[in-house]
Amino acid sequence: MAENKKWMPRWFYQMASPRWSYEIMGKLMPWFAIPAAVLLVLGIAWALAFAPQDYQQGNSFRIIYIHVPSAILAQSCYMLMAVAGAIGLIWKMKVADMVAKSCAPIGATMAILALATGAIWGKPTWGSWWVWDARLTSMLILLFLYLGVIALHSAFESEATAAQATAVLALVGLVNIPIIKYSVEWWNTLHQPATFTLTERPAMPAEMWVPLLIMVIGFYCFFAVSLMMRTRNEIIHRERRASWVRELIEKQ
Amino acid sequence: MEICGNNTFLHSDGCCTGREFVYNEPLNYCVGHAALKYRNKPGFRLGVGVLSEPLLTVERLFCERDDRILFDNLSFDVKQGEVVQIEGQNGSGKTTLLRILSGLSRNFEGGIYWKGEPISDVAEDFRLSLLYFGHQPGVKAILTPEENLNWYAAMHPSSIDQSRIYDALEQVGLKGYEDVPCHMLSAGQNRRVSLARLYLSDAQLWILDEPFTAIDKRGVAEKEALIARHAENGGSVILTTHHELNMGDRVRRINLDKLAGTS
Amino acid sequence: MSEMLTKEPVRTGEQSIGGLFLAVLKRDLLLSYRRRSDLVNPLIFFLMVATLFPLGVSPEPDFLAQVAPGVVWVAALLATLLSMDSVFRSDYEDGTLEQTLLSPQPLFVVVLGKITAHWMLTGLPLAVLAPLLGVMLFLPEGGMGGLMLSLLLGTPTLSLVGAIGAALTVGLRKGGVLISLLVLPLYIPVLIFGTSAVQAAVTGLPLDGYIALLGAMLALGIGLAPLAVGAALRISVSG
After folding, report:
1. Does C221 contact A at CB distance below 8 Å?
2. Which residues, at least 6 apart from C42, have a Cβ–Cβ distance to it below 8 Å?
3. What ranges do the domains of chain A cover?
4. In this predicted model, what pLDDT tens digit does every residue of A6-55 receive, in sequence order?
5. What is the ipTM of this complex?
6. Is B208 in a helix, a strand, or coil?
7. Is A5 on the interface with B (CB under 8 A)?
8. DSSP H or E segment with residue C22
9. Among A153, A172, A192, which would you mutate to test the C interface (most chain C Cβ atoms within 10 Å of its Cβ)?
10. DSSP per-residue string spanning C177-196
């Protein structure tokens, strides 16, 4: 139990308190929401209006400003989900379970976004909506992994059991992701030697990658905000019978 | 160091050591939280009796199921030689409590200690000392009673041999049925196959969930005697039953309904 | 006072790990032997799925020869999945799983024994039966050895990974479909390297690399999957 072995920093154990987490997330949210809004508006404007055209693909390449950040986020979100799940499993920390639960739909949405933008981009580039490109295929499998986690979570009636079971599944998936990625890339080179890949590009000029970086950071901030909102929602829902939640509701 | 019993000394660390004669055999013993520290030392064995240390300690147990608090702040301990009967209405959480105590269910808050150590730290030791009899009998329908008990023996490394298995089957009245697949036996006979484990086991702690269901009157009396004998020998039993136990003041009752009412 | 008072839990007549493994294996094989009819079902399914392809796509020998490695592997994968749900289900339903979890024996070994039994009753017969499907699908003779070898090395990994899905869903009534959802994405690496091995064998390329990769995945599976299965079983029984 957590009380016996206090070898993690203090905030780690405070996080175990839903109320503390709820309040700290409430305080942190504006610090992410404002940068998210600023960075996303700035990044989009720069990317669409000011970044130079690609010499091969013209204007159609500009979709990478959505595609790449969502793809990166879909992957990091899975990692966060697995780590949060492991913390919930080891330290019996409810808030970690809630974070893991909140990660799944966000990550799945990001994976869908990456796949959709990839398809839209594929049409002018390859002439078809779908190509069995290594990255797109890996993203599709990642989406399947997310869907499995969501399906497993919804199959359990008890929240605690659901959280533990999905944590195990997410960890198994985490071990498998590198193997899947490697095998798919290897399979891809076997079947489609030397095709043009979407994101592996010759050195990008700064006018192109700086807005991309801004978009990636903006996406991360946006992700943090939506994760905190979902987690706060989850806390309120699960602690609905606790006195502090009642007081909170009565105040409003 | 002060004297805290007959020939017994209490050390500053809360540990008792002393010398006692059991069956005219001198025995160094120690009890208390440091007992485990001493138990492997030559000349020392874990002592119990007058200064009996609880086998199982439950501290501030909290469990909720489907938005309903089953028990909150439930604390008790089980000493050697004690029979603890968990009472309560249907749905009061008797089975849930037994599953938590056995280590099957982990959806609870609070502490459970086996001989003073958190149960998760001494899981193997605890499982060696536990016999759990649950709602499901744990009997494979397509195996014979003998094969079922053989499997149980394989999973519980102990001195169980073939003759003890035959003996146990005879005790529960299944002599002659050793080679009949369990799906051809009646429900009551299937329960008996499972109950035969009580005759086989060397476990100290028995956790029995409704052990008398589907057992005839004579069988119940026999099992009751068996439970009493186990307790006399220094074992402990935690059980639920709707049957009235005739064991006098050996039985301690914990009522979950009353607990829910007061909390 | 009797001797019970000072009795410590002692492991007498202790079995070795290998003895326990064999005991689990023997029991599960015996259980399956008593229900022989269930044994052939995955094999029949395996044959049927492979029959669908010529009927559904084309009976052209050249075409079939080309898709044969993939078809046999996909059929093997689905047949393994089909039988996966039953690995822990009957133990869960009659309470023997509870008793197993409460026993002092190492769960890792018990789980590994059960998975080995499952493989011996599905993966192994599938690998033995595979050349028959190879003939039906006009797989060149040179590929038969590669097909059997890749299945022999790949199907244990399928059983190991599938057991994680089975353990996670054993407490659920509608486990069957859910297992496929959870496990199929995890099967993809085995499928890729398995079919590639067969294709390499057909074209006469060396197999070592694929066999090494399949073996590495199997080793990883043996080391990690029983841990995940054990954790998942405790969670399922707890819930």
Report:
1. no
2. C79, C80, C82, C83, C122, C125, C126
3. 38-45+61-251
4. 566 777 777 778 888 899 999 999 999 999 999 999 999 988 888 887 77
5. 0.89
6. strand
7. no
8. helix C17-34
9. A172
10. HHHHHHHHHHHHHHHHHHHH
